Amino acid sequence: MISLASLFIVGMPRSxxxxxxxxxxxxxxxxxxxxxxxxxxxxxxxxxxxxxxxxNLVEFHLKRWFQRPTLAPLKxxxxxxxxxxxxxxxxxxxxxxxxxxxxxxxxxxxQGKEFWGEKSPEHFMYVPAIxxxxxxxxxxxxxxxxxxxxxxxxxxxxxxxxAFNHALQWREYQVMAKHYIKLYGSSFxxxxxxxxxxxxxxxxxxxxxxxxxxxxPKMLEQYHRQPLFDPSQEPWKNRARMPxxxxxxxxxxxxxxxxxxGIFSRVCGRYLxxxxxxxxxxxxxxxRKLMTGLDRQSILWWxxxxxxxxxxxxxxxDRPLAAAGKERNTSGPGT
Length: 335
Prior knowledge:
By secondary structure, the protein is an alpha/beta fold. It has a domain at 7-29 and 115-231 and 239-314: Rossmann fold. The protein is 47% helix and 7% strand. The chain has 15 helices and five strands. The chain has helices spanning 17-25, 38-48, 55-66, 81-90, 96-110, 127-133, 146-153, 163-184, 193-198, 200-211, 219-222, 252-255, 258-274, 287-292, 296-310, and strands at residues 7-10, 30-33, 115-119, 138-143, 188-192. Strands 2-3-1-4-5 form a five-stranded parallel beta sheet, with helices on both faces. The two termini are 37 Å apart.
């Protein structure tokens, strides 16, 4: 059986994380909260500053996080959470675990549910941090064909990438997933978006068995009612409230240009095959096409991240993963 505060859904943006979160949140015992981005917005800046050393710094990042539009359903500003966290800090007891468990545990309790989950796609990059704060956490990673991810990303207003950047990101996610499986074993679980939409009952039954909860058919009937996002703020997520379409795949066959297909085949080919995705025949990509989309900063960042992960070090803080969570300073005044 899963323990409270132990489920995190991750994956590339536009890979089906919202759909999966809705399906799981329709379970009678599990509430998946709206997207928090906690580890990017709070954990990273606080840990890079040395931990919970100064309350003014902690308060700044928490207040900034509280104001995120996606967190509006949690009503954090009116919940008294900041006062509770300040009190815990005064006693030298404030931790990231306490912050998330108190907020999201309260969210689940308000829905009459025992367990909570969290869905933030970018938390894929923070799996070591999650496991340091929640050692028993189950990480659920959803994988989608990167060519369809690219087409979907092209439709959202916040996208700034091109085919090369998206191909590189997807490939490096698969590289990191191999490290996560090696480090965390079965607590890091991967499923394909395409399998989920083609046979949702079977895939959910397998996933729930892995989590430790019983599959409930109503999950497939009530997923679209879950309050995971505000359609007026994030209209690009509206598909997650529509009937599951088993044909929502392989859009790349008609949507991608030959040079874009070549980029994905060249950059992602090995991992496309490993995940059972088809590579078209007679597709080539010249080095010049790749250079057109080259983002030097992305290349350097992914190279550094891969180097650190291979040496069992946190990708953000460059400290041993075994020590992550133990080195943080949670001291308040007078301790």
